[in-house]
Hints:
With 221 residues, the chain is an all-alpha fold. Helix content is 62%, strand content 0%. Helix 3 packs antiparallel against helix 7, helix 3 (31-40) packs antiparallel against helix 9 and helix 6 (71-78) crosses helix 7.
Amino acid sequence: MPSKQEITTVLTLLKKDHKPTMLEQLSHYTAFQMVVMTALSARAKDATVIPIVIDMFAKHPNPEDFVDMPVEKLEKMIYKIGFYRVKARNVIALSKMLLEKFDGVVPDTREELMELPGVGRKTANCILAYKFKKPAIAVDIHVFRIANRLGWVHTKNEKETEFALMELVPKDQWINVNNMLVGHGQSICSPRKPSCGKCNVREYCEFGKTSLNKKEREKRK
């Protein structure tokens, strides 16, 4: 199990070559826009989501713009995003709930955020960390994969990973876990063919050290 100092070192090293994630690129967006954008990004690529939300929010920036919008109209705006029909209904429903229950103000607690349609634990944690700067670890497929490859955790799912990381990672670094690991997962540590030779934290990585050692052995044959 890595020490808290080692984890901090890894996050610091990742920051040097970090490429901003979608939520960092669009961090100037309002809390409402961030909620919608994060919910839409589930099981979708940032490259697909970013141009869609930029265009959508230029014309429809507020929850009031969505409450009476025909679902078919919203579906046409976001149809390139996976599960767009379900997501369109959720965006309209969460807009209504924000106005009716929260006076149009996005709540800043996990429990209240998760009351919003289409907002799960990961999305709620993203909003807490990226928008409200509150300690939270948002675990998606990248964070799950890389935390396990590094050997920080040995977990079976994203929720289990979140709680394990909360025990390991210094609390003042929680906010950095998602953006650093997601950025690394998108650029270096891909699911199938990670670029371990280009990774600047491979000496701290269980998977990376094993992978490189295997390649060295194959060269000697």
